[in-house]
Amino acid sequence: MSQPYLAEGLPQPVPAPDGLDAPFWAGLAEEKILIQHCHSCQGWQWGPEWICHHCRSDNLGFEEVSGEGRIYSYERVWHPVHPALKDQGPYLIVLVSLPQAGDVRLVGNLLGDPEQTVEIGAPVRAVFEHHPQADPPFTLLQWQLTA
User: Are residues 55 and 38 in contact, defined by beta-carbon separation less than 8 angstroms?
Assistant: First the structure.
């Protein structure tokens, strides 16, 4: 992706202060989606926690999952939510369910025409938007319809 989807000047995403989601952000930089997985009960969860949401085990790790999912919900944003977006809109935000990871859901922008028709359940694939010039560099997870 050569040009950012949204305007420059937004706060840069960085791992949480406790660093628990750092593997997720590092994975995005390598164009991988890493989701927290429990080695005890095989449950998946997002966001990352110190214990499993299902069995309370602390035997957790991050595993790569496919960049394919389905739109669970969406919002078309018409009004800016940050000063850097004052001239931008509309844009689409989607909540994507990942079937290969226990249907955990991730948020991202839906690329393409911001006024396109969006169907719940539509298949999407991950698109990685790299920002190597930022300090620190980061990568955003975006989504694109596959059909």
Answer: yes
Chain length of the chain: 147
Peptide bond into 90 cis (omega under 30): yes
The predicted model scores a pTM of 0.88
Closest by Cα among 123, 128, 115 to 147? 123
What the block records as the tokens of 95 is 């909540």
Interatomic CA distance for residues 140 and 13, integer angstroms? 8
Evaluate if residue 59 carries a pLDDT over 60: yes
> Of the given ranges (23-32, 48-57, 126-135), which has the lowest mean pLDDT?
126-135
Helix/strand/coil (H, E, C) string of 28-42? HHCCCEEEEEECCCC
pLDDT greater at residue 26 or residue 13: 26
Of 51, 89, 94, which Cα lies nearest the Cα of 70? 94
How far apart (Å, rounded) are the C-alpha atoms in residues 97 and 71? Answer: 6
What percent of the chain clears pLDDT 70, i.e. is strictly above it?
93
Show the tokens assigned to 142.
């975006």
